């Protein structure tokens, strides 16, 4: 009887301990995951002496309203300036519209452009459209992309997977790809 009582007590105590550990892990996971109604409209990533920012001015835009999203690249190192080389822009703004599950591409052209980043003076570029379609795409997709290409975003939830891609012209040329993510909603006109 005494052995059964000891085994029973140990079983209960170990169950409580395991439940406590499980509960702690569950709380940690909940703390790390974003709340469903919490939007991230600003993201900043520091890599070495460079700071990349991706920003949406608003969490929600009305359909037909100008969506104000921009990227910045800032040098914060010891020198007065650094020179970078990139395509027509170092910034890319590919997106996913999650309501329809559409991928919105964003391309840059012309390789070999050079820009001088002065310490503490961010280089800034606004989002202007993006997207593409082919004759084989469905009509609904084409109409959606035609609006996006004119920076007239249809209602939905958008995730911007922004990135800055460039080379730093220094003693040793170094390639950078710095990524950040933000999101925004476009609400239907009332």
| Topology, number of strands | 12
The succession of helices and strands, N to C, reads: HEEEEEEEEEEHEE
Largest sheet: 8 strands, mixed
Number of helices: 2
What is the first-to-last residue Cα distance? 73 Å
SS strand fraction: 35-45%
Structural classification: alpha+beta
Q: Residue ranges: pLDDT <50 for 5 or more in a row?
A: 1-36
What is the CA-atom radius of gyration, in angstroms?
24 Å
The helix content, as a percent range, equals: 10-25%
Overall pLDDT? 83
Oligomer: single chain
- What characteristic shape results from the CA principal axes? globular
Care to describe what's here?
There is one protein chain. It contains two helices and twelve strands, in the order αββββββββββαββ. With 190 residues, the protein is of the alpha+beta class. Residues 1-36 have low confidence and may be disordered. The chain starts with a helix and ends with a strand. Strand 1 (42-47) and strand 2 form a beta hairpin. The strands form two sheets. Strands 3, 5, 6, 7, 8, 9, 11 and 12 form an eight-stranded mixed beta sheet that branches. A four-stranded antiparallel beta sheet has the order 1-2-4-10, with no helix packed on it. It is 22% helix and 39% strand.
Walk me through the topology.
Elements: H1 2-32, E1 42-47, E2 50-56, E3 60-62, E4 69-75, E5 81-86, E6 91-92, E7 95-97, E8 102-104, E9 113-118, E10 123-126, H2 139-149, E11 156-169, E12 174-187
Question: Summed up, what is this model?
Answer:
With 190 residues, the protein is of the alpha+beta class. The protein has helices at residues 2-32, 139-149; strands at 42-47, 50-56, 60-62, 69-75, 81-86, 91-92, 95-97, 102-104, 113-118, 123-126, 156-169, 174-187.
């Amino acid at each position: 009887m005494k052995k059964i009582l000891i085994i029973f007590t140990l079983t209960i105590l170990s169950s409580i301990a395991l439940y406590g550990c499980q509960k702690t892990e569950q709380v940690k996971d909940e703390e790390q995951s974003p709340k469903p109604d919490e939007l991230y409209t600003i993201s900043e990533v520091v890599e070495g002496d460079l700071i990349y920012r991706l920003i949406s001015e608003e969490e929600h835009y009305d359909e037909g309203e100008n969506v104000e999203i921009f990227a910045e690249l800032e040098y914060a190192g010891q020198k007065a300036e650094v020179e970078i080389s990139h395509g027509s822009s170092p910034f890319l703004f590919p997106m996913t519209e999650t309501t329809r599950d559409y991928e919105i591409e964003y391309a840059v052209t012309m390789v070999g452009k050079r820009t001088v980043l002065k310490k503490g003076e961010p280089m800034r570029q606004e989002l202007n459209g993006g997207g593409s379609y082919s004759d084989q795409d469905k009509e609904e997709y084409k109409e959606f992309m035609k609006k996006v290409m004119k920076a007239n975003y249809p209602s939905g939830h958008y995730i911007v997977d922004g990135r800055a891609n460039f080379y730093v012209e220094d003693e040793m040329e170094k390639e950078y790809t710095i990524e950040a993510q933000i999101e925004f909603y476009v609400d239907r006109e009332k």
